[in-house]
Amino acid sequence: MNKKFRFWETEKRVSLGIAGVIVVIGLLSGCATVSRQYNAWSEYRTGVNLFKTEKYGEAHEHAKAALALKPEQPEFLTLLGWTSFRQSRFDEARRLFTRVHEKDKDGVAGPQGLAWVDYAKGKYDAAGKWFVKQQEWAKDHMGKTDWIYYGPGDTQYVHSIRSDAAYGLGLIALARGKTKDAEAFLQEALAYPNDFTGHGPILTAFGDFYFKAKNYEKARVHYEKALALKEDALTAAKRAWCLYHQGDKSGADQAFLRLASSSSDRRPGLYGLVFTRHVLGKVGEAKERLKELIRIDPYFADTTDLYNLIVKTRDWRLLWKDFAEGYFEKGDFARADFKLKGYLPLSKQDCEARLMSAWCALHLHGAKAGLAEFASLSDQRNCPSDQVATGRGAALLYLNRLDEAEKQFEKARRENPENLRAAVALGAVAFMKERHKEAIELYKSNLSLLPKEENYFSWPSHALNNLGWSYIKTEQYQEALQTFRKLQALHRNPVYPAIFDGLGWSLYHLNRPQEAKEAFEEAIRLSPKYASSLSGLSSVEGLKKKRSAPRSAIGPS
Question: Which has fewest Cβ within 10 Å: 154, 362, 487, 531?
Fold first, then answer.
């Protein structure tokens, strides 16, 4: 939402463009201030343009840069709020929109942002109140005697706010099963132009309304109207499901096939093909489509409808292992373990599955439980002994039985020199024994073999984290910074505070306090009680005070 939007408004309803604002500022300020103001608005405009093209991460950085130049500017706060929102950083977005609202209690930018944050978090009562506040704001303007004299830009903005509020209220009514209210609100949303979302998502919501009522013909018509405005994989899939429920299985199959073949998001198409191919008697193809979907996203495939299809035959129930592998790779050990409990009774001697189960026990139930599972596998001798030794070593490492862990990792390396995890784990033993120079050499010798991307903070991430700290402990701060940068690049989403903590301490020791402060603050944003970064912030403040303290005048002796 809010792909096209306006972040500022004036109480006098004067359509003053950003360029005009800069001219006014220029008349009132000195040259240095003019330059600073111009740079701030330039960063802001760049951020807005990037936001419109859905480059939210880049837009976020420009919004931050604008705010750094001109703190507390409502427009900049609002843009930063929306870039945070679009990256699912809802708590951060809430704080920003709250600040906007506190600065302008009579304005609508704060309530609009807060409404969508609360809606996204499922807080429908709170969201509803904010949407009503939006709605009242728009109705108040539209009811003024001079409404007919509003400029086109201001009229469009007020209309968009009213449509946006009605759309939000309609979605809440839909979620609560209040069909009459949902229909009325969505009709109101379509009655006014909407520069925030456009009418496409509203038409899709109307389609959902009819789909839930099993009026598939009306639902399909609304989905097609939405698609005429903008292509969207999920909406196209919903249209295909209308065909499916109307009895046109072949038509639905072709629609799903087009989605699976050409859409950037193949999941809705693959999901639909599982059902259409199955009902058309192409059961083998249906199973292959499901396996492909599970590889891409096991969560998307884990539905009640697919469960009911899978449990019918043993051959399909073997797919529980595919689910387990998908979840295991993403670090969701609880779901992986649950799927393995369904799979292992069907294939008790499957070594891969049993090893996965042992690792799940380690992560879910602790080192002792994991050690017992790997010991059992060792006794049975059905799995590669180097893999079992690696697992036992990891459990012993967590139990701080470092000498025993080291022996297990060395055993794994002797039996399989290609066992990268065991080789890297020897670096962890050295690190935990505070043999930092040895840890550096062990990690460096395997650095090029580590994966370039991770789904969660697994052993390659721990390897880079330990290497970075080994560099810090040996006062090799530039190497530490480079290592933590590599760790950061390993993860698409910046959700691990340890990454930013390591960056912060590297930058601190390199006498780059402002960058260190920003890194520590990011770590604390992710984990407010992260002790190392809280300590880092205190150290940065101490360093700044030391630098700013006046030097004692020392005269000649």
Answer: 531
